[in-house]
Automatic annotation (TrEMBL):
Residues 90-194 form the Exosome complex component CSL4 C-terminal domain. GO terms for molecular function: RNA binding. Gene3D superfamilies: 2.40.50.100, Nucleic acid-binding proteins. The keyword Manganese does not apply. InterPro entries: Csl4, EXOSC1_C, Exosome_cplx_N_dom, NA-bd_OB-fold. One of its GO terms (cellular component) is nucleolus. This is Exosome complex component CSL4 C-terminal domain-containing protein. Residues 73-82 have a biased composition (Polar residues). GO terms for biological process: RNA processing. Residues 61-86 are annotated as: Disordered. Residues 8-45 form the Exosome complex component N-terminal domain. Its main location: nucleus. The keyword Zinc does not apply. It comes from Penicillium decumbens.
Amino acid sequence: MATSLPPVAIPGQRLGSVASYSAGPGTHVQQSNIYASIAGPVIVDPAQPKTQTKSILRISRVSPGPSQAVAAPSNTSAPTTKSKPRYNTLPAVDSIVLARVTRVQKRQAAVSILVVLDDASAANPDPSKAASDNDNVASILTSAANPENHSNTDELRFQALIRKEDVRAVEKDRVVMDEMFRVGDIVRGSVISLGDQSFYYLTTARNDLGVVMARSEAGNMMFPISWKEMRDPVTGTGEQRKVARPF
């Protein structure tokens, strides 16, 4: 009996038979069945009349666009389409992410990815308007910026590194990591590499990337006054950061 394909798969989930589909990226074949190798949306690429006899089944690292076919029940005549959700399932190269700094070392800063944004969300100046049904950026950032919430939950999130050479585009040899980021800062970055199994790699070497939220040593939320400095509105003290350009 024909079975439906899931819209989103998890690693190890059975998707279909090799008699019905060809295995594509993000999948593997075991005992004549196709299984998901990674988590993500299930995509069906229709067969090409001259080159392929079967549709290709693959798992995408990002959410499908409006023109891409997503998994459809195998007993239907044509695949359905699905509009692109506001947030992606997994970070991908060129994804814009919001992350919290968890550790600062001499040559790199470790961050915990909080939200993966799409292009429209990243360009939206009002985080509350960018929230989807599953994610509320404003509440996530407000909670993440609170030192009381810096806990072991970071271990359950995607981890990433910002290397010294990826902090800014100019005077890379003069970068001092302690002056660019502090533990607890919220950073907007772009994924430049999927890295290894432990860490993604991010860059902040653009005007629109860098620290977007930070607390001063006195514990007050600061506001940016230049691309390299933020100020405590209560004490008036300035602190150095690699600041993202405000929208």
